[in-house]
Amino acid sequence: MSELIPRLSFSELDPQLAKMLRPKVERLKYLGEFFQCTGHQPHALMSFCSLTEDLKNALPDNITELVALTVAVKMRNSYERVQHERLALKLDFGEEWVREVLAPGANDREKLSPEEFLVQRLCFAVLERDGHETKAEFESVIKAIGYKDAIAVLMLIGRYVMHALIANCLELEPPVTSPLA
Questions:
Q1: Of 8, 81, 147, 168, which has the fewest CB atoms closer than 10 Å, so is most exposed?
Q2: Residue 170, pLDDT score
């Protein structure tokens, strides 16, 4: 099915979208297939990118990367998982931290801070229960990081679920190899 979606080159993107994506493309040295496909809806994609940046600015990097990696693993979105493995390592969170975040069934959480542990527990609960019956996990995150950041975490979970649904439906493969391979 994904073959039915023409991939847009950077020069074929809507000019406003191209301007927005240019720094990312120059930094990564490629236009990801996610953008090649979703670029057919430039205004929605620009909103998606703005939401991503707004939430990234609302939360510390460790929480953002923890949510991104956790949702990617739970949703089996290898496209986003590999991107955030690379980013987490670039941000100096360390390979052990990344591997611990990626092991959702592990009980031993030596590398995660207490706040990170609670945020990841909330991510698991929201994803496993479709957001229902998550009051205890959500309240523990509010107490740990404050209600404003807790709301940003919920919105970030939604953002990464949206990406996973799109990437999985389009059967997108990571544009680069995992640094943990």
A1: 147
A2: 95
Q: Report the alpha-carbon distance of residue 140 to residue 18 in Å, rounded.
A: 41
**Sign of CA pseudo-dihedral 141, 144, 148, 153:** negative
Contact criterion met (CB below 8 Å) for 100 and 110: yes
SS3 of the chain: CHHHCCCCCHHHCCHHHHHHHHHHHHHHCCCCHHHHHHCCCHHHHHHHHHHHHHHHHHCCHHHHHHHHHHHHHHCCCHHHHHHHHHHHHHCCCCHHHHHHHCCCCCCCCCCCCHHHHHHHHHHHHHHHCCCCCCHHHHHHHHHHHCHHHHHHHHHHHHHHHHHHHHHHHCCCCCCCCCCCC
* Per-chain mean pLDDT for the chain: 95
What would the mean pLDDT of 75-91 be, rounded to a whole number?
A: 96
Closest C-alpha to 152, from 76, 69, 52: 52
Tell whether pTM > 0.90. yes
Cα separation, 68 vs 112, whole angstroms: 15
Q: Is 8 in contact with 36 (CB distance < 8 Å)? A: yes
